[in-house]
From TrEMBL:
The keyword Nucleotide-binding appears for this protein: yes
A Pfam family assignment: ABC_tran
Organism name: Natronosalvus rutilus
InterPro entries: AAA+_ATPase (IPR003593), ABC_transporter-like_ATP-bd (IPR003439), ABC_transporter_ATP-binding (IPR050763), P-loop_NTPase (IPR027417)
Name this protein carries in UniProt: ABC transporter ATP-binding protein
Taxonomic classification: Archaea, Methanobacteriati, Methanobacteriota, Stenosarchaea group, Halobacteria
PROSITE patterns per record: ABC_TRANSPORTER_2
Signal peptide as annotated in the record: none
Length: 384
C-alpha cells in the first residue's frame, strides 16, 4: 500500500475545537479514556479469497494496547502482521470482530479514527519525493487538527537528523534518509497512535541503527503509542516495551521482551571439539539435534545448537559415546531470535540474531557450563 498518510487525511471541517469548554461529563470521559486501552480488537478475523484459494490471514485476534506503550508485532512472512495493522486502521473491513481506536470505531466512523492515528506503511513511500523535506513536513502538518508550526517542524527535522537536508528534495536523499522523512511525516501530525509497518525494511545496518535510535528517542520524548511491525528482532528489542508474536494469523506469544525470553528458556550453546570428529558423531548430532553446520578453525571444529532442559546432557552423552574430544562449550544468552524460533517452530534463522552476550566457559570436560567450575568470561559479540 502506498500514500498511507493521504488515506488517513481527516476531512475538512471535521476538526475538534481544542479550546472547547469542558463540562464535568467531558472531564470524566477524558479520565476514563486515559485509563482504557487506546487500541483494542476482539475476535478480529480476515480471510482473503474463497474456496480453495481462501487465505485465513487473521484468525480471531484479541488485543489491547495501553496508552504510551510501544508494541512490536513480530512474525514470519505471511503471519498476518500487515493485515492486522490494516484492520486496526480500518483500511480493510474484517469478516468478524470489532476494533476500537482511541474511543472510536474505524469501520463505522473512519474519519473520527483517522484523527487519532498516523501510519507509515511499507517504508519510505509515504512522502512526496519532488518536495523538499521541509515542504513534506509542512504538507503533512496541515493535515492535522492542530497543524504543527515552523518551530515544531524544524525540531522534528533535527530529531531525525536531517537539518542539513531540510531544503533538499526527497528524491535526492539516500534510502535511509527517505525513511527518516517518512517517519517524520508520520509523526508530524502528533496523533496519539502511530503505526509503523517495517520501518527499517531495506535499510543498511548503519541506517537501521540510526532510525532505531531516533525512534526510541522520539517515543521517549513524546510518549506516543506506537505499534510497530518488523522482521528485525534487534529493532523490536531496542524499541518495544511489549512484543506480540504472530504466526498463521494468530497471536502465539504476548509479553515483554524479557518475559518472553524467560518463558521460553532456550539456550544456545557453542560446542568446540578436536578436529577429528567421527562420522557417527556427526550423524547422530544431525539426526537428534539438527546440527548440520560446522565451523572449522585450525585444529578445532565447532557447532552451535539451541537446547532446552536435559537435552544439553543428552548431547554431551552423545559426544562421549562417539569418542569426541570435547574442548569447551559457551552458552549464548537467549534473545528474541531464539524465542521467535521456539514459538513459531521456524520461519526465521539464527542468522537474524543481532547482538548477543556470551558467557564463555573454558576447559575440557563434559559438565554443564554452570558446573564446569570456571568463572564465566563474558564477551559481547556485535553482529550488527
Ligand atoms: N490482498 C491480499 N489478497 C490475498 N491474500 C493476501 C492479501 N494480502 C495478504 N494476503 C495473504 O494473507 C496472509 C497474511 O499476509 P500479511 O501481509 O498480513 O502477512 P505479514 O505477516 O505482514 O507478512 P510479511 O511479513 O511477509 O509482510 C499471507 O498468506 C498473504 O499472502
Amino acid at each position: 500500500m502506498s500514500q498511507s498518510s493521504d488515506r488517513l487525511e481527516p476531512s475538512p471541517g471535521a476538526d475538534r475545537d481544542p479550546q472547547a469548554s469542558r463540562s464535568s461529563s467531558a472531564e470524566s470521559t477524558a479520565n476514563s479514556r486515559s485509563t482504557e486501552p487506546i487500541l483494542s480488537a476482539t475476535g478480529l478475523t480476515k480471510t482473503y479469497g474463497d474456496g480453495d484459494d481462501a487465505v485465513e490471514a487473521v484468525d480471531g485476534i484479541d488485543l489491547e494496547v495501553k496508552r504510551g506503550t510501544v508494541v512490536g508485532l513480530l512474525g514470519p512472512n505471511g503471519a498476518g502482521k500487515t493485515t492486522t495493522i490494516k484492520l486496526l486502521l480500518g483500511l480493510i473491513i474484517p469478516d468478524a470482530g470489532t476494533v476500537r481506536v482511541d474511543g472510536t470505531d474505524p469501520i463505522d466512523d473512519p474519519r473520527a479514527s483517522y484523527r487519532s492515528v498516523s501510519a507509515m506503511l511499507e517504508g519510505a513511500r509515504n512522502s512526496y519525493w519532488r518536495l523538499t523535506v521541509r515542504e513534506n513536513l509542512r504538507f503533512f502538518a496541515r493535515l492535522a487538527d492542530r497543524p504543527a508550526d515552523a518551530d515544531r517542524i524544524d525540531a522534528l527535522i533535527e530529531q531525525v537528523g536531517l537539518t542539513a537536508k531540510a531544503d533538499t528534495t526527497v528524491n535526492e536523499l539516500s534510502r535511509g534518509m527517505k525513511q527518516q522523512v517518512s517517519l517524520a511525516c508520520t509523526l508530524i501530525r502528533d496523533t496519539p497512535i502511530a503505526f509503523l509497518d517495517e520501518p527499517t525494511l531495506g535499510l543498511d545496518v548503519e541506517s537501521s541503527l540510526e532510525l532505531r535510535r531516533q525512534l526510541r528517542d522520539l517515543v521517549e520524548r513524546e510518549s506516543r503509542t506506537v505499534v510497530l511491525s518488523s522482521h528485525d528482532m534487534d529493532v523490536i528489542e531496542a524499541v518495544c516495551d511489549r512484543v506480540i508474536i504472530m504466526n498463521d494469523g494468530r497471536i502465539v506469544a504476548d509479553g515483554t521482551v524479557d518475559e518472553l525470553v524467560d518463558v521460553f528458556q532456550t539456550r544456545t550453546y557453542r560446542f568446540t571439539l578436536e578436529a577429528l570428529v567421527p562420522d557417527a558423531a556427526r550423524r547422530t548430532l544431525a539426526e537428534r539435534f539438527g546440527v548440520d553446520e560446522w565451523t572449522e578453525r585450525g585444529p578445532e571444529r565447532s557447532f552451535e545448537v539451541a537446547l532446552q532442559g536435559d537435552a544439553f546432557y543428552d548431547l554431551v552423552a552423545v559426544l562421549e559415546r562417539t569418542n569426541c574430544t570435547f574442548l569447551g562449550v559457551e552458552t549464548i544468552e537467549p534473545d528474541l531470535a531464539d524465542v521467535f524460533l521456539e514459538v513459531t517452530g521456524g520461519g526465521a534463522t539464527t542468522d537474524d540474531v543481532g547482538s548477543r552476550q556470551r558467557h564463555t566457559f573454558e576447559g575440557r570436560g563434559t559438565g554443564r557450563p554452570e558446573e564446569s567450575g570456571g568463572e564465566p568470561r563474558v564477551e559481547h559479540r556485535e553482529n550488527r
